[in-house]
Amino acid sequence: MNRSFILHERARRHYWQGVGGLSIKSFRGGHAFYNAGGGTFAVDDSCYLVLNQGREYSIAVDSPAPVESFCIFFADGFAAGVYRGLTTPAGRLLDPAPPAPVRFFERTYPHEDILSPALARLRAAEPQSAGRLEEKLHGIMERLLAVHLAAWREAERLPAVRASTREELYRRLHRARDYIAASIGEPIALDDMARAACLSPNHFLRAFKQLFHQTPHQYLTARRLERAQALLAGSDRSVTEISLEVGFESPSSFSTLFRRRVGVSPAMSRGRIAPA
User: Fold this and answer.
1) Residues 6 or more apart from 225 whose CB is under 8 A from it?
2) Does domain 5-155 have CATH number 2.60.120?
3) pLDDT per residue over 37-67, tens digit each?
4) If we measure between CA atoms, which residue out of 108, 104, 102 comes closest to residue 175?
5) How far apart are CA 61 and CA 73, in angstroms?
């Protein structure tokens, strides 16, 4: 990919498969589902996805309402050049040696206060000239590298002797967590989650809890309840219909758990949530 560019579109249905450059995927008003590198990712208002240069992937959008996409694609070597400029002493920047490539953790990242505000500002800005856009993307990349550094430090805390083992375990655990988040409406067993991470169930359970401070089942339940709250706020569908869509087999058990976690019944929660 010889140049950087942005895709900013709205669509109810969309499918594409191929090889892309280093990119940041963000969406509003619905979900986009990606398959990449053996992982499954759901991207919506709550997160963004990072895929590396040369990654083969597919994307699918199928929504009753238009979903807004805002995806940034970086030119080949863009990240390496910015990283070299940030980390190389000034005296060595005159060296014409090519910078080493940067490989990001391919995972969804919850919106935070490092990169997400810059993405929102760029999405809301008027169309940019090529030169002005290139300048802004340098700032975006600096922030993405800061997010990557934070993720790398998180991976370093995993209990493994070799750094390469810690990084690979971190990738696998996040791949499993993204698989869970993309499959909350389906029945998912521990074996399914461990298979997504290419780990034994026992190893997966221990490592997942150590990295995320909750069990896989606790994470799945929390994501189902979050999705249910969003559906309650944004639609007039019945509580029973919503409970089944987010993966609860029994509407009564859903209501009991919802009341215990949220403090009110699903119906009362709908009345208390102010429209966005």
Assistant:
1) 246, 257, 258, 261, 262
2) yes
3) 999 999 999 999 999 999 999 999 999 889 9
4) 108
5) 19
Predicted confidence (pLDDT) per residue in 233-276, tens digit: 877 888 888 888 888 888 888 888 888 888 888 888 775 544 33
Q: Which residues of 214-249 are buried (b: 16+ CB within 10 A; e: fewer)?
A: eebeebbbebbbebbbbbbeeeeeebeebbeebbbe
pTM of the model as a whole? 0.89
pLDDT at residue 274, rounded to an integer? 42
What CATH number does domain 219-272 carry, 3.30.43.10, 1.10.3720.10, 1.10.10.60, 3.40.50.150? 1.10.10.60
Residue pair 43/31 in contact (Cβ under 8 Å)? The answer is yes
Q: Which residue has the tokens 């986009």?
A: 32
